[in-house]
Amino acid sequence: MGLPQIKLSRIDLEWVHVLSEGWASPITGFMRESEFLQTLHFNSLRLGDGSVVNMSLPIVLDIDDSQKNRISGSTAVALIDSADNPVAILNNIEIYKHNKEERIARTWGTTAPGLPYVEEAIASAGDWLIGGDLEVIEPIKYHDGLDHYRLSPSALRAEFEKRNADAVFAFQLRNPVHNGHALLMTDTRRRLLEMGYKNPVLLLHPLGGFTKADDVPLSWRMKQHQKVLEDGVLDPENTVVSIFPSPMHYAGPTEVQWHAKARINAGANFYIVGRDPAGMSHPVEKRDLYDADHGKKVLSMAPGLERLNILPFKVAAYDKTQQKMEFFDPSRPQDFLFISGTKMRTLAKNRENPPDGFMCPGGWEVLVEYYDSLAANDSGRVPEPIPA
Amino acid sequence: MGLPQIKLSRIDLEWVHVLSEGWASPITGFMRESEFLQTLHFNSLRLGDGSVVNMSLPIVLDIDDSQKNRISGSTAVALIDSADNPVAILNNIEIYKHNKEERIARTWGTTAPGLPYVEEAIASAGDWLIGGDLEVIEPIKYHDGLDHYRLSPSALRAEFEKRNADAVFAFQLRNPVHNGHALLMTDTRRRLLEMGYKNPVLLLHPLGGFTKADDVPLSWRMKQHQKVLEDGVLDPENTVVSIFPSPMHYAGPTEVQWHAKARINAGANFYIVGRDPAGMSHPVEKRDLYDADHGKKVLSMAPGLERLNILPFKVAAYDKTQQKMEFFDPSRPQDFLFISGTKMRTLAKNRENPPDGFMCPGGWEVLVEYYDSLAANDSGRVPEPIPA
Questions:
Q1: B126, B62 Cβ separation under 8 angstroms
Q2: Signed CA dihedral, A11, A16, A19, A23: sign only
Q3: What pLDDT score does A379 carry?
Q4: Are A29 and A18 spatial neighbours (Cβ–Cβ below 8 Å)?
Q5: Facing residues of A281 across strands?
Q6: Which residues in chain B come in under a pLDDT of 70?
Q7: CB pair distance less than 8 Å for B99 and A291
Q8: Do B37 and A111 touch (CB under 8 A)?
Q9: pTM for the full model?
Q10: d(Cα B261, Cα B204) in Å, to the nearest integer?
Q11: CA proximity to B177, closest of B234, B217, B245
Q12: Strands, DSSP E only, in chain B?
């Protein structure tokens, strides 16, 4: 091809995957400036017919000065992977300034150093963004043994139809499933049946793109989720397990809108939202970056998501009297134990067991095995497979 | 009154003024959390009937821990001025967290130190915000000889009706009017007449609230604007000069939406938007804080402002061949001189004259007089009158 080439990073390729399958519909290519500005300022886009769709995260491709100079005069560029294979063509391109500080401030509500996505994908990015219409050469595959889990929105819709689902409730996660999560999902199904739905189907939808270094990698999470189904904690009859190909921003109330919007595009009509969705600790200060309730509140008011049914997460905790995960009962706080993600990881690292009933034994074994492999490997983290 | 009291700062009082007169309609009191979150994330509010109105700046009242403790249990508070006179009651109050970092990042797109409004009103503000329904005891007056210029939105609408205006075009400013501005305003009128309007009226609407220390104070600007009308640069027959009581955020594309929205509430249906509206230099880096075109672009796409007619500002500059301000002609750049605000202030400070035709002589004399008074006073800035 005679087109100027842009080499994609791993995260760029994840976005190509996301865009090519329609998760961000009606956006089908890297954003042009009008879409970028609407995303930053309004978390939504106004379409030609006056309707409004939600779009809270910028999906953009950066280039540096020298790349910009090489492209000059072209109306299209070829996007290539790390092995120089062509992946996609970006047509009718538009190049505009990449004000990184403003992008970060408006997306995360902070510019503090140490935001994982910023460090990975923005801090050393180029000073220009290039938008256009994306034309993918062939479907993105990762060849990591997990591609069969990567169903596109249309494949998921077909699956829900095949199962005769009359309600689809989506659960976004980037962590191992413990029995608190499972309680919530089974309770949601119970509520939907009570509401009169005959066949509610759960979309258990772990995020498959970039995650921060101390999150459990996708391959291990998928093993753990498989055990949870094998152990009967969730019912395979009314559960679809699939991978959501997006990278993670950890942008709290801004990102939870993206997580919900993308699942609507895949056929979900109910979205389970928990405490502090897509949140993390402040990278510098000793506090959570976001108010734990803001995600739920912002999601409930977000433009373009008016028709989504939001199911707020009740807080589950370990009930010492029943020796299982239960919804927290504020009348007897002394009976409950909150086991944080950090606590869970520390236990697994030290090969200690959590209290009985916290997670199914098969799932816990996977976690312990993961941390054992880490210690053996000593690199700090098992590397993620690279898409090819 | 037995109500807990909150003492208002000068900027708080300016917001009480803004809210009480309906500039921020349908918001009529300091924001509750749902309004605050929608403002930060969406620059707009969804009303009960599903319609959307623009609202890009948080209009909030902060309190600290001890004030919050004193209020505890009350459903209303009294707002008092610096002389302890009651100004308003805030009813059905809601107290919620004031995450200053997030507010600043999402409003300004930066958290760099040195943003004038942040330094003045946020940096040392309390960690809580208090929202509620505002009930003002009597109209806010400043007794500075300028109150007759402070027309409310309904007074302005009545004035436009009295003048049989069939189009109202608003011009927001916080600087002295030079002949480039005047050219733009007269040219806008010409365009509106060409479009078929019979009686377009200009709302010349200087901002009257908080401005940064190196801006020319309101009282001097009003003198200068008066001279511009007396000297015949603008025609009093089709010009209404009034003061917009809002404080200035210098928040660029976010703030320009507020500037336009408030003028719609006062009856304007055309809004003139210039290069880099509500912009300033980056407080730390050597560049403008905002892209000069973003204000216009964001305004044109802003939710709730779909029906506003935006008139983009052509760039005017001093044409040396004609010895007057003219629209810049890119075919002969060498003939034009750009005179920045900084350059203008430096000339006036040094009692030097700008090129003939840059500003009417009467207006220029006011500016020179202002900088003379500053030098005499030596306090760095003539203090603004305090509202009483």
A1: yes
A2: negative
A3: 52
A4: no
A5: A288
A6: 1, 377-388
A7: yes
A8: no
A9: 0.95
A10: 15
A11: B234
A12: 5-7, 44-46, 52-54, 62-63, 77-80, 86-97, 128-136, 167-173, 200-206, 239-241, 270-273, 309-312, 316-319, 324-327, 336-337
Give the model's pLDDT for residue B307. Answer: 84
Task: Tell me, rounded to whole angstroms, the distance of Cα B54 from its chain centroid.
Answer: 16
DSSP A238: G
Band the pLDDT of A368: cuts 50, 70, 90: very high
Q: Contact, B375 vs B345, CB < 8 A?
A: no
Nearest CA-CA distance, residue B189 and chain A, Å: 29
Using alpha carbons only, what angle is made at residue B164 by residues B160 and B165, rounded to the nearest 5 degrees?
A: 60
Buried (b) or exposed (e) across A305-324, using 16+ Cβ within 10 A? Answer: beebebbebeebbbbeeeeb
CA separation, residue B237 to residues A257, B180, B192, B205, B222 (Å): 51, 20, 16, 16, 18
Closest in B34, B44, B97 to A291, CB measured: B97
Residue A268: pLDDT band (50, 70, 90) is very high
Better-scored residue on pLDDT, A339 or B22: B22
Q: Which of B107, B102, B97 is nearest to B130 (CA)?
A: B97
* Nearest chain A residue to B96, by CA: A291
Residues of chain B with Cβ-Cβ distance to A44 below 8 Å are 42, 303
Amino acid residing at A144 = D
CA nearest to B216, candidates B370, B11, B342, B380: B370
Angle (nearest 5°) at CA B238 between B162 and B222: 105
Return the number of other C-beta atoms located less than 10 Å from residue B225's C-beta. Answer: 23
B42 to A38: CB separation less than 8 angstroms, yes or no = no
Distances (CA, A) of A283 to A100, A258, B58, B112: 18, 22, 25, 17
Query: Quick check: A1 pLDDT over 70?
Result: no
Q: Which two tokens stand for residue B351?
A: 């009692």
Q: Say which residues have a Cβ less than 8 Å from residue A152's Cβ, sequence separation at least 6.
A: A21, A22
Is A105 within 8 Å of B111 when comparing Cβ atoms?
yes
Q: Are B88 and B29 in contact (CB under 8 A)?
A: no
